[in-house]
């Protein structure tokens, strides 16, 4: 699941909003977060594949926001979010309890160990560890400005045995009116629904149209989408960790939903 020099100007050129909008300018908070000398070297080595400048610019993350990252695992993205929102903001680093003691991720370390190392010695004081079920965050209603699901929405299908709707219901309640949800994921072939996501040993992909449908049914509105992470050479058939695709870019979609203000 679940970043070299920011490609923010590229993101500004290719992001395609649903409604006319001004071309976004390079965000100094995002650039500073990505280029921080305090970021772990292992995180920076993953920047080329994950392209955080494009993702953060698309999500429009701002200083002072309160955010939640779902299935944050070791916290690569959570740390970037924390650096962007700054000392007046807050990031909830969510992981399902059963996930934390599961198989190791990058480096072979169990997720629980990765989380502990990320937050050791209070190095990210504006990050709160949130070991809570996906559908029961335990946060106050209307208390969060935004949520990020970075290459993990597909995982929710095998984690919940294809029962993802309660997660979106809980998130809708937790978000403030006008709050956003950013979903970035590996694209499955059109029309496959959740078939490529239900099996943990499967392709780890999700049908973009299903994502749009589910969020609409949960009450969210699609505000913006982007083709900035598309790869037409990816046939959408193999998992992102397949040996013959490892190190290459999967075809990914980016969607930004909002909870209506009214």
Number of strands: 8
Taking all Cα atoms into account, the compactness measure Rg is 17 Å
Topology as a string of helices (H) and strands (E): HEHHHHEHEHHEEHHEHEE
Q: State which percent range the strand residues make up.
A: 15-25%
Report how far apart the termini are. 34 Å
CATH top level of the domain at 8-20 and 42-69 and 80-90 and 141-258? Alpha Beta
Structural commentary:
There is one protein chain. The radius of gyration is 17 Å and the shape is globular. The N and C termini lie far apart (34 Å). It contains 11 helices and 8 strands. The protein is α/β, with parallel strands linked by helices. It has helices spanning 8-14, 28-34, 41-45, 47-50, 52-59, 76-85, 97-100, 111-119, 155-159, 165-174, 208-217; strands at residues 15-17, 66-69, 90-94, 127-130, 144-150, 175-186, 221-226, 252-258. Strands 1-7-8-6-5-2-3-4 form an 8-stranded mixed β-sheet. 30% of the residues lie in helices and 18% in strands. The protein has a domain at 8-20 and 42-69 and 80-90 and 141-258: 3-Layer(aba) Sandwich (Rossmann fold).
Task: Explain briefly what this protein structure is.
This protein is α/β, with parallel strands linked by helices and 262 residues long. It has helices spanning 8-14, 28-34, 41-45, 47-50, 52-59, 76-85, 97-100, 111-119, 155-159, 165-174, 208-217; strands spanning 15-17, 66-69, 90-94, 127-130, 144-150, 175-186, 221-226, 252-258.
């Amino acid at each position: 699941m679940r970043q070299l020099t920011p490609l923010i100007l590229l993101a500004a050129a290719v992001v395609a909003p649903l409604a006319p909008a001004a071309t976004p300018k390079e965000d100094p908070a995002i650039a500073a977060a990505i280029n921080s000398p305090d970021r772990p070297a292992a995180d920076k080595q993953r920047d080329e594949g994950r392209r955080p400048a494009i993702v953060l610019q698309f999500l429009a993350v701002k200083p002072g926001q309160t955010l939640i990252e779902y299935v944050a695992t070791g916290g690569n993205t959570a740390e970037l979010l924390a650096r962007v929102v700054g000392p007046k903001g807050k990031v909830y680093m969510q992981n399902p309890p059963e996930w934390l003691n599961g198989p190791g991720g990058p480096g072979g370390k169990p997720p629980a160990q990765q989380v502990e190392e990320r937050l050791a010695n209070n190095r990210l004081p504006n990050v709160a560890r949130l070991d809570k079920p996906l559908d029961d965050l335990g946060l106050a209603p209307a208390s969060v400005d935004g949520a990020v699901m970075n290459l993990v929405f597909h995982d929710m299908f095998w984690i919940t045995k294809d029962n993802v709707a309660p997660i979106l219901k809980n998130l809708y309640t937790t978000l403030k009116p006008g709050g956003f949800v950013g979903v970035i994921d590996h694209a499955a072939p059109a029309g496959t629904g959740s078939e490529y996501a239900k099996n943990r040993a499967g392709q780890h992909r999700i049908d973009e149209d299903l994502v749009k449908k589910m969020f609409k049914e949960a009450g969210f509105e699609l505000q913006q989408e982007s083709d900035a992470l598309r790869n037409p050479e990816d046939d959408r058939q193999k998992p992102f960790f397949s040996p013959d695709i490892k190190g290459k870019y999967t075809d990914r979609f980016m969607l930004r939903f909002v909870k209506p203000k009214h």
